[in-house]
Every structure is written in structure tokens, then in C-alpha cells.
Design a protein that fits this description.
By secondary structure, the protein is α/β, with parallel strands linked by helices. The protein contains 9 helices and 31 strands. The chain folds into 2 domains: 273 residues, Spore Coat Polysaccharide Biosynthesis Protein SpsA, Chain A (Alpha-Beta Complex), CATH 3.90.550; 101 residues, 3 Solenoid (UDP N-Acetylglucosamine Acyltransferase, domain 1), CATH 2.160.10.10. Helix content is 19%, strand content 27%.
């Protein structure tokens, strides 16, 4: 069966808990894993699943995200049904507001649905790190003849207050939604786990339009799928939960566990990123049948120079991105972005270094995140005296030091006069 699938990616989040990494960019534009951005995961999942008609809904501090979409995610104009188009708030609400909730974000772009007339609409967030074969979720939606399908993942009961929890029957039909309720019901047969919504949805077009228009006329609503529309929907239509644990990625070993991480704060972001350097990381970036796509740059390979005692360019248990040069510097257990320079006598340990940072001679950096374009003067020490670090940098309760960077230079064309 040929299904017309239209996808919306919700990429307008502020990401306030990731501050200061979100000081100059929206959360989906935050770098991850050396050369990627968080939004690359949802876009790669869609494209790898054969879904090529994609609108990216943007809002807060979107310039960095727009530049990344331009550099890495522009399709050719030859095939008209293949596009990734950023869409700002259309001000179609009665008060001509920005997006007021996930449902309002879709309603303000309801014309895009109506003029393309898809069979199903996929609404996915851009805030999480995960791999998902979305085609399987759509197949589940069609097999169940569902009107709405919600991707769900089991989480320990103690985290129920952090998620929208789904109460389901034995066949996966949704009975109720419990928004961030610590006393939410547990999964059938498993009293220690609750079924959490991942914020990813598949909707049949007709019922979706009906509920969007209905919600737009209501006063007592936050215009959100999880809080408002879906709780009303379950009593009037067929809503199912798709068990993310059943999802299988082509090219992965049989029985490989699924991967999904909420990187909503600095500590969670740090842990998810540092996991990549493990011998066998939970997130497989090396599956050629399911590539993680991103922008391509004309960077040279990384280079390690000098082999002298006390002046040896090297990296151990680390990921190093293109264009970086370790000129006598040592890196351990770290993730290094593009175009980073680490000079003689410096050591970087247990850290995440974004693009174009320059670490001067004899610097010592430990358990830190350096944002883009950070320049450390010679003999700078970070991560060894947290009280001193707090006077200059942002330090989390767990002791991660975040160093703010500088704005990247943007080239402007010139004319001869």
C-alpha cells in the first residue's frame, strides 16, 4: 500500500535547562558527538525511513539551526515531493501569537496539511538523541487502524513525574494520559515501570484536522497534544501506543537494544555524549545501513604532531572530528569537534570540546564542556578547582564546567567600488 506521509519536526524549543549551551541557539541546534547537531537524529530517522516530505517548525533563536539546515539538509529541487523546509510561526492563531503548544504549532501550519492531502501525518520532536525506524511505527498504525499512535518507552516508576505517562490496555490501546504524575499507573504486569510518551506521533489526517480545529476554538486549553488533544481523543477514537522496544534498525545485530536519551539538562547531555567514546557504545554511529547524516564540510583529516616526551600529540578513548590538530597536546576520554587546536603540553580529559576551540600551551582541562570558539590562554586550568571555576564559568552540581564561547564569524560577500 502506498501511503502519502507528511512529517513535521518540532524544532522550536528554548532548551532552558541546557543553558548556557542554548544561550545563542535553539536546543535542536546544540552540537552532539563532535560533528553532529541534535536535530540530525530525527531528520536522519525520517530520511532513512523513506520519509522525504518534511517541514521543520522553528521558533526561538533559530539562526544557528537555519544555517545548519542550509549546509546539510537541502534536497535537490528535481523531485518535488522531497524537501526539508524550515517554517517559522505563521501567526494563524486568533491572537497572532508564536506557537503556544505542540498542537498549536501544527494548527498554525494546517494549510500545509490541507494542500498536500497526506494519508498520515508524522509529528516528531527534535530534542532527543535516538535512532528509530519510523516506517515500522507507521506500519503498526495502519495494522491497528488507529487514528493516532504515540511512540512510548518504559521508564522506571520513580521518573513518572518527568514524563507524560500512557495508561494502556493489553492490546496497546491507550486508556488515559497522565501528565507528569508521580502516581501514574504502572505497566500491565510490571509494577516497577511506567510507559512514557516519547512525544512522537503518527496521525491519520482526517481525525487530526478535526481535533486541531476543535482545540483552536477552545479557551481552557494549552494547545498541546499530550496535555489536551490526546486525552480527549482516547474517549472518542482509536489511539494506540507503539512500543519503541520492538523497533528494529536495519543493519543492527539481532537483539540489539533500542536507544533513546532525553538530553534535557547539562548532566544528561554530558553522559549521553561521553558514552560515544566507549568501546561498545549504546549508540551505534557506524551502521552504514542507517547513517547519521549531517552537514558536510571541506575539512581536512585530523592531525597529531610531535612524538617527544612531554610533547606528544595523541588521543586515547576519544572521538576526534575533522580539521583538528593536536600539536603536542594529549586528549583522553573526550569528544573533540571540528577544527580544534590543542597545543604543546596541554591535556584534555573527560571533556567535550566544540568546533574551532583553541587550547593554548600547558593548559589543563578536565570534566568540562567548551562551547564553540573558546580560546584558552596558556596555562589555563579548568576542572581542578571548582570554586575558582564558579567565579568565571557555569558549573553544574555534579561538577561539570561549561565555558561559554564566542559567536562564529559569518562571511559576507564584497563588491568592488
Amino acid at each position: 500500500m502506498q501511503l502519502r506521509v507528511l512529517s513535521f519536526v518540532l524544532a522550536g524549543g528554548k532548551g532552558t535547562r541546557l543553558y548556557p549551551l542554548t544561550k545563542e541557539r535553539a536546543k535542536p541546534a546544540v552540537p552532539f558527538g563532535g560533528q553532529y547537531r541534535i536535530i540530525d537524529f530525527v531528520l536522519s530517522n525520517l530520511v532513512n525511513s523513506g520519509i522525504h516530505s518534511i517541514y521543520v517548525l522553528i521558533q526561538f533563536k533559530s539562526q544557528s539551526l537555519l544555517q545548519h539546515l542550509r549546509d546539510g539538509w537541502e534536497f535537490s529541487g528535481i523531485l518535488k515531493d522531497r524537501y526539508i523546509i524550515p517554517v517559522p510561526a505563521q501567526m494563524r492563531s486568533p491572537g497572532e501569537t508564536w506557537y503556544r503548544g505542540t498542537a498549536d504549532a501544527i494548527f498554525q501550519n494546517v494549510n500545509l496539511i490541507e494542500q498536500s492531502d497526506p494519508h498520515v501525518v508524522a509529528v516528531f520532536g527534535a530534542d532527543h538523541i535516538y535512532r528509530m525506524n519510523i516506517r515500522e511505527m507507521i506500519e503498526f498504525h495502519e495494522q491497528k487502524r488507529a487514528q493516532a499512535t504515540v511512540a512510548a518507552i518504559p521508564v522506571p516508576k520513580e521518573f513518572a513525574s518527568e514524563f507524560g505517562v500512557i495508561e494502556v490496555a493489553g492490546d496497546g490501546r491507550v486508556i488515559a494520559f497522565h501528565e507528569k504524575n508521580p502516581d501514574a499507573p504502572t505497566m500491565p504486569g510490571n509494577p516497577d515501570m511506567v510507559l512514557a510518551s516519547m512525544g512522537n506521533y503518527i496521525f491519520s489526517t482526517g481525525p487530526l484536522l478535526k481535533f486541531l480545529y476543535e482545540d483552536s476554538k477552545m479557551e481552557k486549553t494549552s494547545h498541546d497534544f499530550g496535555r489536551d488533544i490526546l486525552p480527549r481523543w482516547v474517549s472518542r477514537g482509536d489511539v494506540f501506543a507503539y512500543d519503541f522496544q520492538t523497533n528494529r534498525i536495519p543493519g543492527d545485530p539481532i537483539g540489539a537494544p533500542v536507544y533513546w536519551r532525553d538530553v534535557g539538562n547539562i548532566d544528561a547531555y554530558y553522559e549521553a555524549t561521553m558514552d560515544l567514546r566507549m568501546v561498545t557504545p549504546a549508540l551505534n554511529l557506524y551502521n552504514r545501513q542507517w547513517p547519521l547524516r549531517t552537514a558536510s564540510y571541506d575539512d581536512p583529516p585530523p592531525k597529531f604532531t610531535f612524538d617527544e616526551e612531554g610533547r606528544r600529540g595523541s588521543a586515547v578513548d576519544s572521538i576526534v572530528s575533522a580539521g583538528s590538530i593536536f600539536s603536542g597536546g594529549m586528549v583522553r576520554n573526550s569528544i573533540i569537534g571540528r577544527g580544534v587546536r590543542i597545543h604543546t603540553g596541554s591535556t584534555v580529559e573527560d571533556s567535550i570540546v566544540f568546533d574551532n576551540c583553541d587550547i593554548g600551551r600547558r593548559c589543563k582541562v578536565r570534566k568540562a564542556i567548551l562551547d564553540k570558539n573558546v580560546h584558552l590562554a596558556e596555562d589555563t586550568v579548568i576542572g581542578y578547582d571548582l570554586e575558582a571555576d564558579k567565579q568565571k564559568y557555569h558549573v553544574t552540581e555534579s561538577g561539570i564546567v561549561v565555558v561559554e564561547g564566542r559567536r562564529s564569524r559569518v562571511q559576507v560577500s564584497s563588491i568592488e567600488v
